[in-house]
Amino acid sequence: xxxxxxxxxxxxxxxxxxxxxxxxxxxxxxxxxxxxxxxxxxxxxxxxxxxxxxxxxxxxxxxxxxxxxxxxxxxxxxxxxxxxxxxxxxxxxxxxxxxxxxxxxxxxxxxxxxxxxxxxxxxxxxxxxxxxxxxxxxxxxxxxxxxxxxxxxxxxxxxxxxxxxxxxxxxxxxxxxxxxxxxxxxxxxxxxxxxxxxxxxxxxxxxxxxxxxxxxxxxxxxxxxxxxxxxxxxxxxxxxxxxxxxxxxxxxxxxxxxxxxxxxxxxxxxxxxxxxxxxxxxxxxxxxxxxxxxxxxxxxxxxxxxxxxxxxxxxxxxxxxxxxxxxxxxxxxxxxxxxxxxxxxxxxx
Length: 349
Hints:
Elements: H1 2-29, E1 42-47, H2 53-62, H3 69-78, E2 86-91, H4 96-105, E3 111-114, H5 121-130, H6 136-143, H7 146-151, E4 167-170, H8 176-191, H9 202-218, H10 225-237, H11 245-255, H12 297-304, E5 313-318, E6 323-327, H13 330-337
Antiparallel strand pairs: 1-2, 3-4, 5-6
């Protein structure tokens, strides 16, 4: 009789423990607060590749997003949970199952990152690093991955010129190769809208992009882009140097890694325009070896379809409005510039 009583007592204790544990487990899975509470905390958790649910749960507990990290860990282990790398927004008004669902759904928090027209690989990398998308070095290395460049049929050693300037939806700690691929894919998608673009060979497209990259750095008013493109096109046909300060600026900042100059010097034995480099269009006729920036649709369209003119020169005459004057004769070009404190061919920073 006594043994039977002891058995029932033990059984009762076990059942009580199981029931209590079950209700405790259920309670710990609940949110800390409700959506209507004034004490709602939103937290952005970044999950690196290779991270595990144990460390994620501990971080959420420390940030007061969940009640119990051990319970979250157990819940994840009891389900078919797969942790996906990325950045996610979670709240303390969410239950553990809701948070688990977010972490394995891949529904990451995206941020808008705008890449302006006319930037180089280096400058784009700086923007991405500032926004914590990827490091500037990783982006640079990915943009200079020749193996990937060849996959796109681009006859170059890097993606300069093919990183389309646009507003992108990106996440923190992205793989730099994925960012580059996204920008290059966007380039070809956007450029395909330009009449006759898709009928060009890879080498023809490369030359168009190279010309567009210079036009991008020179024009200020969109309607003048085709006129500037016509000046360069006419010079190319006559094998006349393009005389673009933008190409010299590229040498100074991107190749020589010097600070951006306030002005491109043209006079004296050490003038910038006398730098011995194939990108120097003051010393060498024809297009430079490759693009000097990443152009947008305005410049690409202008390079693809330059205006039909007999212009060989242009001069910035209104800095505030970005207006140029275009001429055929060099004497006229000089005459216009007599009372202007401008360079023969200007560039925009």
